[in-house]
Amino acid sequence: MHVTLHSSALFSSPFIIVPSQKVPTKMEVKNKYVAIKASINGAPEESDFEIKVENLSLIVEPESKVVVVKNLFVSIDPYQINWMKSQSSSQTSIRYANAITPGEVIDTYGVGRMLVSHRPDFKKDDLEAGFLTWGEYSIVKEGSLLNKLDPSLAFPLSYHVGVLGFSGLAAYGGFFKVCKPKPGEKVLVFAASGSIGHLVGQYAKLLGCYVAGSAGSQEKVNFLKEKLGFDDAFNYKLEANLKSALKRCFPKGIDVYVDNVGGKMLETALSNMNSLGRVAICGVISEYTNASTRASPEMLDIVYKRISIQGFLIADLMTVYADFLSKTVEYLHDGKLKAIEDISQGVESIPSAFIGMFNGDNIG
Protein backbone atom coordinates (compact mmCIF):
# COMPACT_ATOMS: atom_id res chain seq x y z
CA MET A 1 0.00 0.00 0.00
CA HIS A 2 1.09 3.52 -0.64
CA VAL A 3 -0.10 6.45 1.46
CA THR A 4 -0.48 9.93 -0.01
CA LEU A 5 -0.26 13.14 1.95
CA HIS A 6 -2.49 16.03 0.92
CA SER A 7 -0.61 19.29 0.79
CA SER A 8 -3.79 21.35 1.07
CA ALA A 9 -6.21 19.40 2.87
CA LEU A 10 -3.11 9.75 2.06
CA PHE A 11 -3.69 5.58 0.56
CA SER A 12 -0.04 -0.09 3.21
CA SER A 13 0.20 -1.96 0.45
CA PRO A 14 0.18 1.05 -0.76
CA PHE A 15 0.40 4.96 -0.60
CA ILE A 16 -1.09 7.74 1.62
CA ILE A 17 -2.16 11.38 1.05
CA VAL A 18 -2.16 13.83 3.94
CA PRO A 19 -4.14 17.05 3.63
CA SER A 20 -3.46 20.24 5.57
CA GLN A 21 -5.08 20.80 8.95
CA LYS A 22 -6.75 24.07 7.92
CA VAL A 23 -10.49 23.89 8.55
CA PRO A 24 -12.68 25.81 6.07
CA THR A 25 -15.11 28.36 7.46
CA LYS A 26 -17.19 28.75 4.28
CA MET A 27 -20.44 26.95 3.45
CA GLU A 28 -18.79 25.55 0.33
CA VAL A 29 -15.28 24.31 -0.46
CA LYS A 30 -13.30 23.44 -3.57
CA ASN A 31 -12.72 19.69 -3.54
CA LYS A 32 -9.77 18.48 -5.59
CA TYR A 33 -9.96 14.76 -6.45
CA VAL A 34 -8.51 12.11 -8.77
CA ALA A 35 -10.65 10.49 -11.47
CA ILE A 36 -10.07 8.19 -14.43
CA LYS A 37 -10.74 9.59 -17.90
CA ALA A 38 -11.92 6.22 -19.25
CA SER A 39 -11.81 2.54 -18.24
CA ILE A 40 -8.28 1.18 -17.85
CA ASN A 41 -7.87 -2.31 -19.30
CA GLY A 42 -4.08 -2.60 -19.28
CA ALA A 43 -1.21 -1.20 -17.28
CA PRO A 44 -2.16 2.24 -15.87
CA GLU A 45 -0.47 5.35 -17.24
CA GLU A 46 -0.42 8.98 -16.11
CA SER A 47 -2.58 9.93 -19.10
CA ASP A 48 -5.39 7.69 -17.78
CA PHE A 49 -6.02 10.03 -14.85
CA GLU A 50 -7.10 13.61 -14.32
CA ILE A 51 -7.30 15.96 -11.35
CA LYS A 52 -10.77 17.46 -11.10
CA VAL A 53 -12.17 20.23 -8.91
CA GLU A 54 -15.77 20.42 -7.71
CA ASN A 55 -17.72 22.77 -5.47
CA LEU A 56 -18.65 20.79 -2.37
CA SER A 57 -21.45 22.08 -0.16
CA LEU A 58 -20.93 21.98 3.59
CA ILE A 59 -24.64 22.43 4.24
CA VAL A 60 -26.15 19.18 5.54
CA GLU A 61 -29.80 18.95 6.58
CA PRO A 62 -30.20 18.38 10.35
CA GLU A 63 -32.05 15.08 9.84
CA SER A 64 -29.49 13.79 7.33
CA LYS A 65 -27.12 10.94 8.20
CA VAL A 66 -24.60 12.11 5.57
CA VAL A 67 -21.31 13.48 6.94
CA VAL A 68 -18.48 15.47 5.35
CA VAL A 69 -14.90 14.43 6.16
CA LYS A 70 -11.65 16.29 5.55
CA ASN A 71 -9.28 13.61 4.26
CA LEU A 72 -5.93 13.36 6.04
CA PHE A 73 -4.49 10.06 4.80
CA VAL A 74 -5.83 7.89 1.97
CA SER A 75 -4.60 4.51 0.84
CA ILE A 76 -3.47 3.58 -2.66
CA ASP A 77 -3.57 -0.17 -3.40
CA PRO A 78 -2.96 -2.32 -6.49
CA TYR A 79 -6.34 -4.08 -6.32
CA GLN A 80 -8.06 -0.78 -7.14
CA ILE A 81 -7.07 -1.29 -10.78
CA ASN A 82 -9.82 -3.94 -10.94
CA TRP A 83 -12.44 -1.25 -10.23
CA MET A 84 -11.03 0.86 -13.08
CA LYS A 85 -11.48 -1.84 -15.72
CA SER A 86 -14.47 -1.94 -18.03
CA GLN A 87 -15.04 -5.49 -16.82
CA SER A 88 -13.55 -7.64 -14.04
CA SER A 89 -14.86 -10.72 -12.24
CA SER A 90 -14.27 -8.88 -8.95
CA GLN A 91 -16.91 -6.29 -9.91
CA THR A 92 -19.68 -8.88 -9.78
CA SER A 93 -18.38 -10.82 -6.77
CA ILE A 94 -18.70 -8.26 -3.98
CA ARG A 95 -20.81 -5.16 -3.47
CA TYR A 96 -18.05 -2.61 -2.88
CA ALA A 97 -15.96 -3.57 -5.94
CA ASN A 98 -18.22 -2.01 -8.55
CA ALA A 99 -16.70 -0.50 -11.66
CA ILE A 100 -15.65 3.15 -11.30
CA THR A 101 -17.45 5.62 -13.51
CA PRO A 102 -14.97 7.82 -15.41
CA GLY A 103 -14.94 11.34 -13.99
CA GLU A 104 -16.36 10.26 -10.61
CA VAL A 105 -14.57 9.97 -7.26
CA ILE A 106 -12.56 6.83 -6.48
CA ASP A 107 -13.26 5.11 -3.16
CA THR A 108 -10.49 4.01 -0.84
CA TYR A 109 -9.70 3.42 2.82
CA GLY A 110 -8.39 6.37 4.76
CA VAL A 111 -8.26 8.57 7.84
CA GLY A 112 -9.97 11.93 8.12
CA ARG A 113 -11.28 14.62 10.43
CA MET A 114 -15.02 15.13 10.79
CA LEU A 115 -16.04 18.45 9.25
CA VAL A 116 -19.85 18.36 9.16
CA SER A 117 -22.09 15.92 11.04
CA HIS A 118 -25.54 15.90 12.64
CA ARG A 119 -25.15 12.29 13.73
CA PRO A 120 -24.87 11.60 17.48
CA ASP A 121 -21.98 9.16 16.98
CA PHE A 122 -19.76 11.66 15.11
CA LYS A 123 -18.87 15.13 16.32
CA LYS A 124 -17.02 17.91 14.50
CA ASP A 125 -13.23 17.43 14.61
CA ASP A 126 -13.49 13.73 15.54
CA LEU A 127 -10.82 11.60 13.85
CA GLU A 128 -12.27 8.75 11.80
CA ALA A 129 -11.07 5.80 9.72
CA GLY A 130 -13.13 4.22 6.97
CA PHE A 131 -14.12 4.42 3.32
CA LEU A 132 -13.11 7.82 1.94
CA THR A 133 -12.04 8.93 -1.54
CA TRP A 134 -8.94 9.90 -3.53
CA GLY A 135 -9.53 13.56 -2.85
CA GLU A 136 -9.31 16.35 -0.30
CA TYR A 137 -12.83 15.82 1.08
CA SER A 138 -15.25 12.89 1.25
CA ILE A 139 -19.03 12.72 1.56
CA VAL A 140 -19.82 9.58 3.57
CA LYS A 141 -23.34 8.16 3.60
CA GLU A 142 -24.96 6.21 6.40
CA GLY A 143 -24.03 2.52 6.22
CA SER A 144 -20.55 3.15 4.83
CA LEU A 145 -17.64 1.94 6.92
CA LEU A 146 -16.55 4.77 9.21
CA ASN A 147 -15.25 4.35 12.75
CA LYS A 148 -14.04 6.83 15.34
CA LEU A 149 -10.35 6.45 16.16
CA ASP A 150 -9.25 5.66 19.69
CA PRO A 151 -7.08 8.63 20.74
CA SER A 152 -5.50 6.58 23.55
CA LEU A 153 -3.54 4.53 21.00
CA ALA A 154 -1.26 7.54 20.39
CA PHE A 155 0.21 6.29 17.10
CA PRO A 156 0.80 8.37 13.96
CA LEU A 157 -2.49 8.76 12.08
CA SER A 158 -0.98 7.07 9.03
CA TYR A 159 -0.69 3.82 11.03
CA HIS A 160 -4.49 3.55 10.96
CA VAL A 161 -4.34 3.31 7.16
CA GLY A 162 -1.49 0.78 7.07
CA VAL A 163 -0.31 -1.40 9.94
CA LEU A 164 -3.52 -0.88 11.98
CA GLY A 165 -5.72 -0.74 8.87
CA PHE A 166 -6.56 -3.09 6.02
CA SER A 167 -2.94 -3.98 5.18
CA GLY A 168 -2.22 -5.02 8.75
CA LEU A 169 -5.45 -6.99 9.08
CA ALA A 170 -4.82 -8.76 5.75
CA ALA A 171 -1.33 -9.75 6.90
CA TYR A 172 -2.43 -10.89 10.36
CA GLY A 173 -5.65 -12.61 9.30
CA GLY A 174 -4.23 -14.21 6.18
CA PHE A 175 -1.35 -15.64 8.18
CA PHE A 176 -3.01 -16.65 11.44
CA LYS A 177 -6.66 -17.28 10.55
CA VAL A 178 -6.29 -18.74 7.06
CA CYS A 179 -2.91 -20.48 7.23
CA LYS A 180 -2.98 -21.48 10.93
CA PRO A 181 0.83 -21.58 11.27
CA LYS A 182 2.81 -23.38 13.94
CA PRO A 183 6.13 -22.31 15.51
CA GLY A 184 9.07 -23.71 13.56
CA GLU A 185 7.24 -23.90 10.23
CA LYS A 186 8.81 -22.47 7.09
CA VAL A 187 7.12 -19.39 5.66
CA LEU A 188 7.56 -17.81 2.21
CA VAL A 189 6.75 -14.16 1.50
CA PHE A 190 6.91 -12.83 -2.08
CA ALA A 191 6.72 -9.03 -2.45
CA ALA A 192 8.15 -9.11 1.05
CA SER A 193 8.90 -5.39 1.26
CA GLY A 194 5.31 -4.44 0.38
CA SER A 195 2.60 -3.24 2.75
CA ILE A 196 1.32 -6.75 3.53
CA GLY A 197 4.46 -8.80 2.95
CA HIS A 198 6.70 -6.96 5.40
CA LEU A 199 4.11 -7.50 8.14
CA VAL A 200 3.50 -11.19 7.35
CA GLY A 201 7.23 -11.82 7.67
CA GLN A 202 7.42 -10.07 11.03
CA TYR A 203 4.33 -11.84 12.43
CA ALA A 204 5.88 -15.15 11.34
CA LYS A 205 9.18 -14.36 13.05
CA LEU A 206 7.36 -13.37 16.24
CA LEU A 207 5.63 -16.76 16.18
CA GLY A 208 8.99 -18.53 15.86
CA CYS A 209 8.89 -19.50 12.19
CA TYR A 210 11.68 -19.61 9.62
CA VAL A 211 10.98 -16.82 7.11
CA ALA A 212 12.43 -16.11 3.67
CA GLY A 213 11.21 -13.57 1.16
CA SER A 214 11.78 -12.07 -2.25
CA ALA A 215 12.01 -8.46 -3.38
CA GLY A 216 12.93 -6.56 -6.54
CA SER A 217 16.21 -4.91 -5.55
CA GLN A 218 19.29 -5.59 -3.45
CA GLU A 219 18.39 -2.61 -1.28
CA LYS A 220 15.07 -4.24 -0.42
CA VAL A 221 16.73 -7.62 0.18
CA ASN A 222 19.16 -6.06 2.63
CA PHE A 223 16.28 -4.25 4.30
CA LEU A 224 14.38 -7.49 4.84
CA LYS A 225 17.33 -9.27 6.43
CA GLU A 226 18.97 -6.44 8.34
CA LYS A 227 15.97 -4.38 9.48
CA LEU A 228 13.06 -6.82 9.62
CA GLY A 229 14.89 -9.97 10.71
CA PHE A 230 14.06 -12.27 7.77
CA ASP A 231 16.18 -15.44 7.86
CA ASP A 232 16.88 -15.18 4.13
CA ALA A 233 15.84 -13.13 1.10
CA PHE A 234 16.66 -12.86 -2.59
CA ASN A 235 16.26 -10.47 -5.52
CA TYR A 236 13.94 -12.29 -7.89
CA LYS A 237 15.05 -10.11 -10.80
CA LEU A 238 18.57 -11.55 -10.56
CA GLU A 239 17.49 -15.18 -10.35
CA ALA A 240 17.72 -17.17 -13.57
CA ASN A 241 15.56 -19.89 -12.05
CA LEU A 242 12.98 -19.08 -9.40
CA LYS A 243 12.56 -22.72 -8.42
CA SER A 244 16.29 -23.00 -7.70
CA ALA A 245 16.13 -19.85 -5.59
CA LEU A 246 13.35 -21.32 -3.47
CA LYS A 247 15.21 -24.62 -3.14
CA ARG A 248 18.21 -22.65 -1.87
CA CYS A 249 16.15 -20.75 0.69
CA PHE A 250 13.88 -23.68 1.58
CA PRO A 251 15.90 -26.89 1.31
CA LYS A 252 13.24 -28.64 3.42
CA GLY A 253 10.28 -27.13 1.58
CA ILE A 254 7.64 -24.48 2.32
CA ASP A 255 4.78 -24.90 4.81
CA VAL A 256 3.01 -21.52 4.57
CA TYR A 257 2.70 -18.92 1.82
CA VAL A 258 0.62 -15.72 1.97
CA ASP A 259 0.32 -14.56 -1.63
CA ASN A 260 -0.62 -11.26 -3.25
CA VAL A 261 1.47 -11.72 -6.41
CA GLY A 262 0.07 -14.70 -8.32
CA GLY A 263 1.49 -15.75 -11.71
CA LYS A 264 4.86 -17.50 -11.90
CA MET A 265 5.55 -16.70 -8.25
CA LEU A 266 2.51 -18.69 -7.13
CA GLU A 267 3.32 -21.55 -9.52
CA THR A 268 6.87 -21.80 -8.21
CA ALA A 269 5.84 -21.58 -4.57
CA LEU A 270 3.32 -24.40 -5.01
CA SER A 271 5.95 -26.62 -6.63
CA ASN A 272 8.08 -26.23 -3.51
CA MET A 273 5.33 -26.69 -0.91
CA ASN A 274 5.46 -29.48 1.63
CA SER A 275 2.61 -31.91 2.17
CA LEU A 276 -0.32 -30.24 3.95
CA GLY A 277 1.07 -26.83 3.03
CA ARG A 278 -1.27 -23.83 3.24
CA VAL A 279 -1.57 -20.92 0.82
CA ALA A 280 -3.63 -17.79 1.56
CA ILE A 281 -4.26 -15.49 -1.42
CA CYS A 282 -5.35 -11.87 -1.03
CA GLY A 283 -4.21 -10.51 -4.40
CA VAL A 284 -2.53 -11.27 -7.72
CA ILE A 285 -0.77 -8.05 -8.72
CA SER A 286 1.22 -9.75 -11.50
CA GLU A 287 -2.06 -10.68 -13.22
CA TYR A 288 -4.05 -7.44 -12.78
CA THR A 289 -2.66 -5.78 -15.91
CA ASN A 290 -1.56 -8.79 -17.95
CA ALA A 291 -3.83 -11.82 -18.25
CA SER A 292 -1.09 -13.83 -19.99
CA THR A 293 0.78 -14.10 -16.66
CA ARG A 294 -1.95 -16.12 -14.95
CA ALA A 295 -0.76 -18.94 -12.73
CA SER A 296 -0.95 -22.46 -14.11
CA PRO A 297 0.15 -24.67 -11.21
CA GLU A 298 0.87 -28.38 -11.33
CA MET A 299 -2.45 -29.72 -10.06
CA LEU A 300 -1.03 -33.14 -9.18
CA ASP A 301 1.21 -31.43 -6.59
CA ILE A 302 -1.85 -29.84 -5.02
CA VAL A 303 -3.72 -33.15 -4.95
CA TYR A 304 -1.00 -35.50 -3.73
CA LYS A 305 0.57 -33.06 -1.30
CA ARG A 306 -2.95 -32.10 -0.09
CA ILE A 307 -2.11 -28.41 -0.33
CA SER A 308 -4.82 -26.02 0.88
CA ILE A 309 -5.33 -22.83 -1.17
CA GLN A 310 -7.78 -20.21 0.04
CA GLY A 311 -8.59 -16.75 -1.23
CA PHE A 312 -9.77 -14.21 1.31
CA LEU A 313 -11.07 -10.68 1.66
CA ILE A 314 -10.91 -8.22 4.54
CA ALA A 315 -14.57 -8.91 5.30
CA ASP A 316 -13.65 -12.52 6.09
CA LEU A 317 -11.27 -11.45 8.85
CA MET A 318 -13.57 -9.49 11.16
CA THR A 319 -13.67 -12.39 13.64
CA VAL A 320 -9.97 -11.86 14.38
CA TYR A 321 -10.04 -8.05 14.26
CA ALA A 322 -9.99 -7.57 18.05
CA ASP A 323 -7.11 -10.01 18.45
CA PHE A 324 -5.26 -8.41 15.53
CA LEU A 325 -5.58 -4.93 17.00
CA SER A 326 -4.61 -6.00 20.51
CA LYS A 327 -1.55 -7.99 19.44
CA THR A 328 -0.37 -5.46 16.85
CA VAL A 329 -0.66 -2.53 19.26
CA GLU A 330 1.30 -4.54 21.83
CA TYR A 331 4.03 -5.42 19.32
CA LEU A 332 4.30 -1.80 18.17
CA HIS A 333 4.51 -0.46 21.72
CA ASP A 334 7.17 -3.04 22.60
CA GLY A 335 9.20 -2.31 19.46
CA LYS A 336 8.81 -5.88 18.22
CA LEU A 337 7.01 -4.85 15.01
CA LYS A 338 8.21 -2.20 12.56
CA ALA A 339 5.63 -0.32 10.50
CA ILE A 340 7.10 0.64 7.12
CA GLU A 341 5.25 3.32 5.17
CA ASP A 342 5.59 4.83 1.71
CA ILE A 343 4.06 8.30 1.89
CA SER A 344 3.69 10.86 -0.89
CA GLN A 345 2.23 14.34 -0.64
CA GLY A 346 -0.71 15.91 -2.41
CA VAL A 347 -3.69 14.72 -4.44
CA GLU A 348 -1.64 15.33 -7.59
CA SER A 349 0.82 12.62 -6.53
CA ILE A 350 -1.77 9.83 -6.45
CA PRO A 351 -1.62 8.71 -10.12
CA SER A 352 2.18 8.40 -10.19
CA ALA A 353 2.19 6.65 -6.79
CA PHE A 354 -0.45 4.21 -8.00
CA ILE A 355 1.44 3.45 -11.20
CA GLY A 356 4.68 3.05 -9.25
CA MET A 357 3.29 0.12 -7.28
CA PHE A 358 3.01 -1.93 -10.47
CA ASN A 359 6.70 -1.18 -11.11
CA GLY A 360 7.76 -2.14 -7.58
CA ASP A 361 8.71 1.42 -6.62
CA ASN A 362 7.28 1.33 -3.09
CA ILE A 363 8.57 -0.07 0.20
CA GLY A 364 5.76 -0.59 2.68
Automatic annotation (TrEMBL):
Q: Which domain of life is it from?
A: Eukaryota
Using the record's annotation, list all stretches that form the Alcohol dehydrogenase-like C-terminal domain: 196-316
Q: Which InterPro entries match?
A: ADH-like_C, ADH_N_2, GroES-like_sf, MDR_fam, NAD(P)-bd_dom_sf
| Domain spans labelled Oxidoreductase N-terminal | 33-145
Q: What Gene3D superfamilies does its record include?
A: Medium-chain alcohol dehydrogenases, catalytic domain, NAD(P)-binding Rossmann-like Domain
> Coiled-coil segments, which residues?
none
This protein's UniProt keywords: Oxidoreductase
Q: Which GO terms describe its molecular function?
A: oxidoreductase activity, acting on the CH-CH group of donors, NAD or NADP as acceptor
Q: From the UniProt annotation, give the residues forming the signal peptide.
A: none
Q: What is this protein called?
A: Enoyl reductase (ER) domain-containing protein
Source organism: Capsicum annuum
